[in-house]
Amino acid sequence: MKAPRVTLEQWRTLQAVVDNDGFAQAADVLHRSQSSVSYTVARMQEQLGVPLLRIDGRKAVLTEAGDVLLRRSRQLVKQASQLEDLAHHMEQGWEAEVRLVVDAAYPNARLVRALTAFMPQSRGCRVRLREEVLSGVEDVINEGTADLAISSLNILGSLGTELHTVEFIAVAHPDHPLHRLQRVVTAEDLETQMQVVIRDSGRQQPKDVGWLGAEQRWTVGSLATAATFVSSGLGFAWLPRHLIERELMAGSLKPLLLDQGGSRNPLFYLYSNKNKPLGPATQILVDLIQRFDAVPLNAALTAPLPSA
Questions:
Q1: For the chain, which end, N or C, has fewer CB atoms within 10 Å of the first or last residue's CB respectively?
Q2: End-to-end CA distance of the chain
């Protein structure tokens, strides 16, 4: 790649001339001599081979080419300034990135609110969000490839902070044979039907969670796929209520009337990497996740951001 001939400082000088309506005013703002500012702009025009300014009376006015280049340069200078700010924050211990792994059953609405509130406080820190199922979260945090984790499992050797429960309900399509029984459904009834289960994404010690007594089971890779299968009439499943509200309202899914176990409410926990101290950006994100986890789920996307 060819090295640029024009420096960021030269682009800043041109911006100052245009924004302050002249060379003399730009010189005052930049604390430089007027001749130095004039020479800088003249040298830019030579290097680029394109006239950037023309004199209209006593005022310097952008040419058509100068207008296009100046607009592009503003973003360039802004990004360079942000890069310098990020380097400064990193020197002070501010993280360049926070890695967050979340069980796919945890409500996205709460995460959206937390991450939206984090953005203006992030100082350029990126968030790398990863979704796993069940012990897949445990594997990632134990491997040290995540800074924070949200899981419903008790992760061995880690102390988690309690978040809210997530309600899973047993559902099937309204025309499913279990609904056509028109009575309370028993475990014996479930055993004769196909159950759709979600595969644990963990590699070390995958876990089977929930009732798995059906003779026939189909295993899928995501909650969304399970919801699609079941709402199409293929089997029954326990699914997070928040994920299937639309299907429940539309009538493509209907809760099963079980004699017991029709719903379960696992408690979720927020874990941090036990081998790495929390940096300032990670701590801010921890606080925001906890704060928005306390917001009722049906208000998670509509409630105003709480004050810091």
A1: N
A2: 45
Q: What digits encode the pLDDT tens for the residues 218-229?
A: 999 999 999 999
Contact by Cβ (8 Å): 134, 210: no
30 Cβ neighbours under 8 A, 6+ residues apart:
12, 13, 16, 37
Distance CA 184, CA 260 (A): 9
State the angle between helix axes of 23-30 and 8-19 in degrees (0 to 180), rounded to the nearest 10. 120
**Parallel, antiparallel, or unpaired: how do β-strands 194-198 and 216-220 relate?**
parallel
From 163, 147, 186, 137, select the one nearest 284 (Cα to Cα): 147
Compute the average pLDDT of residues 78-101. 73
53 beta partners: 62
Angle value at C-alpha 248, between 243 and 254, nearest 5 degrees = 115
What's the rounded Cα separation, in Å, for the pair 185 and 70? 71
**CA-CA distances (angstroms) from residue 69 to 20, 62, 91, 153?**
18, 10, 33, 55
So what's the pLDDT on residue 24?
A: 84
Q: Which of 172, 174, 177 is nearest to 229 (CA)?
A: 172
Residue range 156-188, pLDDT digits in tens: 888 899 999 999 999 999 999 999 999 999 999
Q: Mean of the pLDDT values across residues 290-303?
A: 73
Check pLDDT > 60 for residue 86: no
Reduced to 3 states, what is the DSSP secondary structure of residue 268?
strand
Chain segment 121-133, per-residue pLDDT in tens:
988 889 999 999 9
- The phi and psi torsions of 59 (rounded to 5 degrees) equal -120, 140
pLDDT value at residue 110:
94
299: DSSP letter? G
Please give the domain boundaries of the chain with CATH numbers for all domains.
8-91 (1.10.10.10), 97-165+267-299 (3.40.190.10), 168-264 (3.40.190.290)
Q: Are strands 236-240 and 168-172 parallel, antiparallel or unpaired?
A: antiparallel
